[in-house]
Each structure stands twice: as C-alpha cells, then as structure tokens.
Amino acid sequence: MVQKAVQRASFHSKCQTSWLCLHFLLLLLLSRIAASSTIVTTLPGFSGDLPFVLETGYVGVGESEEVQLFYYFVQSQRTPAQDPLLLWLSGGPGCSGLGALLYASGPLKINYEEYNGSTPTLHLNEYAWTQGANVIYIDAPVGTGFSYSTTTEGYYSDDYKSVADLYEFLSKWLLDHPDFASNNLYIGGESFSGIPVPMLVEKISDGIKAGHYPAMNIQGYILVNPKTDTYIDDNARIPYAHGLNLISPEIYEATKESCNGDYIDSTNETCLAYIQTIDELLSQINLLNILEPSCAAVSLEPNNIKWNRRFLKEKSKDDILSSPKSSAYWCRDYTYVPLGVWANMKEVQEALNITSGTVQFWKHCNSSLNYTNVVTSSVEYHVNLTSTGVRALIFSGDHDLSVPSLATQEWIASLNITLESSWRAWYIDGQTAGYVKKYSNDEYSLTYATVKGAGHIAPEYKHKECYMMTDRWLAYYPL
C-alpha cells in the first residue's frame, strides 16, 4: 500500500494544470469506487496452489458505472515490474477472455483430452505468454463471459461504445495498479478484435496527446487472424481456396474473368453461376481450418460458419453441459465442453470471486449480445497508426479460410509503408514455423507472419510457435 501511495503521488506531481489535476483526482476516485479485485491462489481442478499470481475482478465503466467488466490478470512469471503489459481481447464479439487464458496463451490449460464428464482438471501450459508478459484477459464487450450491466440499457453496445468502455477500463485499472503504469503497454486480440484493437490503440494515442491521466505507455499492438475489412476478407476466400487446391484452375480462372475479381458485389449472371459452383465445392470444408472435419452434422451447436459471399459470421462456441454424442469425427468444438462445465461450477465462480446472480449461465461465446457492428473496416485506423510511433505484430494461421492470410496481406500492402525485409522463413527448433516479412517507416514498424499448419485462431493450434514468436517480438528480437 505504501508503494501504491508513492506511485499515486508521482502521478499527482505530473499534473501540469489545475484542470488536469482535477481530472486525475476524479479518475482516481472513480477507480477506487469502480474497481474490485481479489488474488486467486487456488482453482478447482488444479492440484495445489497456483505457481503464479492471478488476480480477478470488476471495473465499472459508463456514466454511472452500470457496466461491470470482468478481467483475469496474470502477472509475468519473469520480472513483472519490467515486463510488458498486454491487454488481450478475444473474438466474437462475445467470446470470453477465459477461453484465451485456458486454450491459447495463459499459464493454465484444461485437460480436454482426458475429460470424462466429471470435474475438468487443469495443468500448466509450458508455452504460456505470461512467462514474459503481464496479461489482462478481459470479458468484453458487456454481456461477454462474467461481465454484466446493472441496467437493461447498459447491455446495448456497438464498436464505438465498446472501445470507449475499454479505454475507461484500462484508465481505471492502471490507476488502481500504478505499479504497472510505466510498463510498456500493448493491446492484443484475435479474430473480430481486428476491429476494436486498432481503434483502441488510436484512442490511447489521442489521449496521450491530449494529456489524459494516467499517461499510458503504449508501444504497439498484436493481432491474430484479424477480421479487418469485410469486403477484403470475404473477397479473398476464393483466390485463397484456389491456392489451397480446393478449386480447380479452370473454375477459378473462369470465375475470376466473369466476376472481374469481385466475388462479393458482382451482379453478372455468369459470375453468380460460378460462385454457386464454388459454394457447393466448399460447402463441406471447415473454414476455420481446412484440414479438420466439417462438423456441422455432428457439432454440439448450430454451425454458424457458412460459406457466405457477404459476411463472415464469427462462429459461436456456446458450450453445453452434456457430453458429446458419439461420432466418427473428432470436432474441435468438443474440446470446449469441459470449459463450459468448469466455468459454470459454483466452486469455480466462488474461487474467481464472481458476483452472485449476475450471470445465469456462462458461455464461452455469447452469440446473443445486443451488439451492433457499425465499423466494417478498421484499415483507416491502421493508416492513422503509421504516424504514431507504435509497432505491430500481425500473424495468421495459414490454413484459415475464414479470414485468409491473402486478405490480411492485401490490406497491409495498402498502408503504403516500405517493405524492410522480404518474405522469408522463420524457425523453431531448426524447422520452418512459418513465413515473415517486415514493413517500416520513420515512426512505425509492422511485422507480418504466418504460422504453418495453424487455423483460426493460430495460438489454439500451435502453442509453442506462437509463444516463441510473441516472446521474441516483445523483446525486440527478430522472429
């Protein structure tokens, strides 16, 4: 507490005008009112005490703090005071940060391979990103995971409100955790978070210029298989499917000619006929990873990923409490069943310090949010960030057909920044882990990489490769 008091005094000394001091003190007061947290030392399903620091809690945002955003904060297992601070947003919108924590980058993993219908068990993840970074996993926007609103109106959200809530959350969280205020700050996210992440980074940059407190030490952002531009992302699927040998050269060339390269908005009848042919060819392909079974017929839930010319619906992974029906196919959806069982256990929610009665039934991904997606492209935000002094790491699983790597490379090329190093392999244990290229200008650098064999989302498929990549990049080492 003494150290926190000293840090707050340091913040206070930085006030340059009476208005800024008043603004800071008001935020500080609100952070004390709005934030509640607890240190979690044990979790059901894990044997013994947790060998890392896990904090969970709520931060109230909004005019009357009706929105309570829930978070899971894992301190770095290396040197927390010096290691970067990463705020991580999951996809959806509506997917809980608990999924990323337990299936992708967190220090724990659920033993879904051994799940038999009883209490799920947890084990340590040897490729946790938290080995060298402090990570805040958040349930956002409101209605996601354990986040809730005290009013019905508070549950209505859109891209702009969500980003405003996240900015307020981070401001209050840093005021309540001044020990981490000077750490290098990064914003990261996956899938749909390709929309809010650059928006939030720009808002933070604007706040720094305006002198907002706390002054966030933003250094960059990380995006994984990011949805970025509805048209570019969707239009790239047909060329990418051709590159993956899912469409014959004859059909592809004929479609390309008749559609003039526009597979989304064309009204040409010949083009539409070829599109229908391609729809049929890809109807049984798993767009999230073309190598895995298409599980629409045996899935635990409706298959919301469709081959759709207009818009990619983010797959909802609503978990149920029953065991999967027998099937000749293994489906990745089945691996999320124990997560739903675990997160809905009373003793788990008590250990996480969930406010009783706020969430009736926890879902991995809540597909019934009152959320309006009004920003269909975040490219302009990336363009704006090229003059802010931040850096970016963007990577794709190379077997993801839902957000093809071709699309990501297309909008990156449109940023008009210089290619610093051309396409080359990057390695783990002497083996090709993927391919990488780097762009830069005087104030911005962007590293783009693929992860060989990974789907959507890459860290769920290739734990070691994604950990090594991000650890190197955060340490300013080349991939």
TrEMBL record:
Protein family: Belongs to the peptidase S10 family.
Membrane-traversing stretches: none
Gene Ontology terms, MF aspect: acyltransferase activity, transferring groups other than amino-acyl groups; serine-type carboxypeptidase activity
Species for this entry: Nyssa sinensis
Keywords: Signal
Entry-linked PANTHER family: SERINE CARBOXYPEPTIDASE-LIKE 13, SERINE PROTEASE FAMILY S10 SERINE CARBOXYPEPTIDASE
Keyword Signal belongs to the record: yes
Signal peptide stretch: 1-35
Protein origin, superkingdom: Eukaryota
Record InterPro entries: AB_hydrolase_fold, Peptidase_S10
Protein name per its UniProtKB record: Serine carboxypeptidase-like 18
Any single biological process term in GO: secondary metabolic process
